[in-house]
Amino acid sequence: MENNIKIVMVGDSGAGKTSLIMSMSNLTFPTEYIPTVFHNSINITHNNINYTIRIMDIVGHDDYDPIIPPNYQDNDIFIFCASNSDQLSSLKSKWYIKMKQPKNIMFVHTKCDTNGITDKQIKEISQVLKPKCIVSCSSMLTFKIKLLMVKIIEQYIELLK
Ligand SMILES: Nc1nc2c(ncn2[C@@H]2O[C@H](COP(=O)(O)OP(=O)(O)OP(=O)(O)O)[C@@H](O)[C@H]2O)c(=O)[nH]1
Ligand SMILES: [Mg+2]
């Protein structure tokens, strides 16, 4: 059986989406700024099972119209990213609506090394997004990046049930 996990990265410009993908791909931190819309593929083995995580990176800048992947399916996982209050607000007011209120959301508190979001704020946003899971991580420190990947796989397995 092919285990293709499809991910859509969502969030404002500067939320750290591309850095997160790079960090998951290489477990290193990119030093160049890369504004991006691209597909990325990560192979990972977990409990002796091979998975391919296919990630669609969405550019967060207002100059670009955010695009919902044309081949969007119900079992895609949407990773909603924010590293500060403003980005958190637009997840609610902009992205959640633009993405058509997806069901399978994982909330990722990016750049957790900067302490830009409080536990209280995470609780508040969770009431709106109703994420299946919440991970605070730092691409820069490669902190909890592996955990995030495991959570993605667990979420995928859950969706297959
Ligand atoms: N301190 C810190 N900075 C980070 C971290 N991750 C990303 N950054 C910085 O945040 C900035 C934005 O990161 P990107 O990954 O390009 O953000 P993005 O969400 O892809 O932005 P767009 O492509 O414009 O939508 C860059 O300057 C990164 O170096 C982190 O974990 N900690
Ligand atoms: Mg980017």
TrEMBL record:
It comes from the Eukaryota. The keyword Glycoprotein does not apply. One of its GO terms (biological process) is small GTPase-mediated signal transduction. InterPro entries: P-loop_NTPase, Small_GTP-bd, Small_GTPase, Small_GTPase_Rho. Signal peptide: none annotated. The keyword GTP-binding applies. It holds the Pfam family Ras. GO terms for molecular function: GTP binding; GTPase activity. Gene3D superfamilies: P-loop containing nucleotide triphosphate hydrolases (3.40.50.300). Keywords: GTP-binding, Nucleotide-binding. This is Rac/Rho-like protein. It comes from Hexamita inflata.
